[in-house]
Give the backbone structure.
Amino acid sequence: MPPVSRSASQPELTALFALVQQHFLDVIVPLWQGPGWNAGLGLPYEALDAGHQPLPPQRYRAMACARQLYLFSSLIGQVPAAEDRAAALFRALQQHFHDAEHGGWFYSIDPQGTPLDQRKDLYTHAFILFACAHYWDKVREPQVESVLNAALQVIAQRFATGDGLYEASLDRDWSSLDTGPLQNPLMHLAEAFLAMLSVREDHAVQDALVDLCTAMHERFIDPHHDVLMEKPLGAVDNWFEPGHQFEWYFLLESSPLLRGSTLHTSLERAFAFTEHLGVDQQTGAVRAMLTLEGLSKDATQRIWAQAEYLRALTLRPNSENAVLQQLRALQQRHLHAGGWYECRDENGGVSRQDMPSTTPYHLATCYRGLVDYLR
């Protein structure tokens, strides 16, 4: 990551971020260059334990490979061998997960490298598009752009439902599983579309992104509180997740194309409501899952939600004190000398000791937001 410019009005925040950023580069990234890397398969292990040993592998997911491809693409030119690792991850994505018969990418392979869950899910394809856009931006290799184009084509032709939304999951041969659209994969598709538009002018992607956000507002926004629900309105046992609210807010607020859209306006209005119900005012912890009445469906405090709240705060007006407090909360509650704590329970106790390979993506995007904020 590039060095942070120092502002006289932000010395404490700047100094704290320098420590956190150095922890990322000195502790977290090397975990995935060393013990977290399965050299035999050319893939990251799914998770490391507290002693930096790989958990016994049950599977390897294409999504996890793609998130690590994003991580090392973002570090090209800043971390030794980042470009070589990104190239290896890109090759692994094609070698292990691409479905040569039906197109698209499998969800997972088993520990021996054989296809395991062969369904095609939007979440995976969105992350492949997202990661390859960032990788192509760094290397500009024709093969990477061809994979980008293939991912775009599959998403448009196979997952699109014709109303601006997309199926969450399909069978290996693209037959329906009747999943319908779900919030989280759609959010990451929006993120992937934004990544595409940041590296290449593409009117079809721009139109698809606008249509997606319009449809999200119509189908997922609760009309009373303006929060984005996890399932379409009217679905049984629906809920919202503060971490996803903050993640969507950042994507919309940071995009000149989407800022001012109906979806952005709703999440802008809902920000204080989400903070009130979803963030512990004493610790800064972000709650996992809530009903609209504020009842907890899952009180777990996850590092990714903490990072997304912090990133969202960098785009809020007059937020310097809040950003400082939340960066301090992230450091004190989730980072430690050997890596990070993935989850705490509702009482603040560490409830997960393992460190998944997917989490550095959230930290990297959060820290990128802080770099831009401190500029």
